[in-house]
Fold this protein.
Amino acid sequence: MVTRRNFLSTSIRVGSATVGSLALRPFGLLPALAQNGSNYRALVCVFLFGGNDSNNTVVPMDSSFSAYTSLRGSLALSSTELTAAISSASGPPIAFHGKLPELASLYGSKELAVVANVGPLVQPLTQTQYKNQQAAIPLNLFSHSDQQLAWQTSIAQGHSPTGWAGRAADYISQSGVNSSGFPAFVSLAGNAVEGTGASTQPVAIGPGQSLQLTGFSSSSESQTRLNALTGLIADGSGVALVQAADDVLANSISDANALSSALAKATKLNTTFPNTSLGAQLQQVAQIIQVQSYLGMSRQIFFCSLGGFDTHANELPTLNTLYPQLSAALAAFYSATQELGVAQNVTTFTESDFSRTFQPTTAGGSDHAWGSHHLVLGGAVQGGKIYGSFPTFQLGGPDDTDVRGRWIPTISIEQYGATLSSWFGIPASALAAVFPNLANFASSNLGFLG
Amino acid sequence: MSARAAARFLDQSSWGPTPSSIAELQSRGIDNWLAEQFAMNTSDLPDQEILTSAGISNNNLAPVQAAFFQNAVSEPDQLRQRVAFILSQIWVVSATSGVSPAYAYPPYWRIFRDNAFGNYRDVIKAVTLSPAMGRYLNMANNNKGNASLGTSPNENYARELMQLFTLGLTQLHLDGTPVLDANNNPIPTYDQSVVTNMARLLTGWTYPTAPGTAAKNNNPAYYFGQMFAVNADHDTTSKTIVGNVKVSASQSAEQDLESLLDALMAQPTMAPFISQQLIQHLVTSNPSPAYIQRVAQVFQDDGTGTAGNLQAVITAILTDPEARAGDASASAITPTFGHLREPILFMANVLRGLSATVAATNSVAGTASNLGENLFYAPSVFSYFSPQSRTAKGLYGPEFQIYSTQTAALRANAVNTLIYGTLGGVKLDLSPFTALAGNSSQLLDYIAQVFLHGSMSTQLESAAMSAMNAVSAPVTKAQAALYIVLTSSEYQIVQ
């Protein structure tokens, strides 16, 4: 039977690492990070669940447009369904899907960049290597669950229990740059492997929802009952899953206290957010960024999501519904960072399971594919440029895995994540611990953050 | 059998033990109780209007959700309901980015109710031909490829049928461990060419023809009845499908489907893949390989040479020594045994334990949704949580995927609402607890009997005691003790 232990303050957050594993110190001795309020930096991930057909997010407006039009068939956007072409500081001129007008405008004003054909890779991969299985191929390509994990963990060979942002957050917490024990990773979309580290456990909050326990007053009866609840959690249990559930509730209580006292300092933003799920998530992120100093945070990573992108059929009407939500919410969030004076300090980026086949299905949709185009937004972004290159629009062509236009990526998630993380404050010496495959690639910085 | 043994069995086989169901199982014994449950089929969900009075699609699932919880709390076919719900979490159809009309859901759910103790092959076939799944994973109106238009049939159902509903991604031994190749790598159950070929095999099905309309090759969505084949839209070329089975050319859509069902049922990976998930939902997140193997053997052959007999599989799961270890004493339970109550199970369990009366209109589903599990609204075909999901310390803990800092607090707050407030359409009867409040030890014993199989840790006992001792009226004592027990992690984990 479990013996009662001394009361352990539930203000101590429970992480997944034991003292023993923390002692491994995967990052070695940490260089000092400059730390002051003006040095605040945040990464904001917007995960597009289901696999966004990025072939229709941005379209190169060069000689490839005729191949786009003929091969995409029923999915091809006409010039009236696209924004006007915008010239790129490097790369071809592009047009955005016509339901992404705010994002097109931000590309034009060089606050948004496009990273082309990025995806899970263990190492650079030629078509010959892929077809003949001559090099490491990412595990379970084209499977939603596995490719979501590949994006969130960055480890394309699979089986990683930790996410890349969680490992980055481990570094941040061990560097001591954040002055409180509040988690550096905050999810507005439930538990996320992306933010799980060796010692980092994400805090999940709902937009507009408090984590506070309800039903307690200051009466002594009430406080006795609350103490009974928290004391029970602190007792610990010899039953593994009971202890696991206790750990979650202990973190919840501890985070609730930190969050509610900080958010009490928040003032209403003038920026109007769209009344959508993603709008509400990003509004909550903006409010937390507003009170970051009260939370003791100078480095934070946020995770938001928008679902519904698994468009095997009826793709055009579906994207016509989803893209306005994405565009308006991202634009509002960027405006809010400007209002808060932190536009230079916050970088927002997209992730998704995979892109989709260039060739359409008989039902006006597209199937699971691989490399996809992603968006990076913020005041620090060297925008208005294409980073990487669009694949050759040819079924069975040089970039295709087969004959349906499932593009082999030419940029790895690890390069994408390392570029974001370097700007965020992970030094070159620590990048290999966050991105274990990074050394396989020629460049660890794609340059979209200077 | 002891009251403890009966309560444990009922926590694994029903929506939750009650004093009367414990007594009933004690008097009948497990074999008779199971036989009665296998024969019973009393629950239904109410069919819904297709259109609202305004003539638009009726997407209001609230009456169906409310009836689901009425059934869970009150209808006697408890094991059938539990198994049906589990099957519906494997074979997901969802109103999130999917099937919106409410009338699609009762007929779809009846597939699992009526086949809960039937054969898995029949489940595969019935779901494959159901218009709800046809819409959700785009098999309805999935016409053969058109070379002149440069199109291919979509791969959605073909892929998920294998990945999620029958086989998983990698080949498994009967005990659930992966089959490895010479280089110690797992062996995939299929590759992309199999997905492409199966997508072609599954072409040529359309929605049932709505009454009063003319049948078309590509009917509009209609959710009563089964899909039917339109062979003009079926790809009749030969295909090589899962298990390297060659399906010859010129077969009809119906013949191709039978070939596919045969090929799937012949895959040895199906038995451990499905058995493990059923065990995880009913009994424990971390079953031993030997437990999985014992159940998977029954899945492969029920003793009469038949594979996929779910009644035999469920019996094997619930009567296995690993499930029953601990019936005599909590000390016989291994530290990694058990599973977290998912929100829907949590709500049903609390309500049954508190002798709730649930009205035809009720807010139970809304609370479960707040806690991360919105009935009929799974976030994707990957359901509410993955069988592969792990706890922070690396154990399997599927339900932990939706147990976050947010939903853990909301779960405690749901207990607060139930015990100290009111939940719409729910009337609790706390009198059995209040009646014992004059004797704190007796009250805690009774709470333990209803909610913890008669066994409460000393820590939980002293926490509940301290909360009780701070109040004096019988009702407030009962409330304080119930609050502490129902918010405890010891209760959240079914051991």
Observations:
- The two ends of chain A are 58 Å apart (CA to CA).
- Chain A touches chain B through 83 residues (CB under 8 Å).
- The domain at 36-211+249-440 of chain A is CATH 3.40.720 (Alkaline Phosphatase, subunit A).
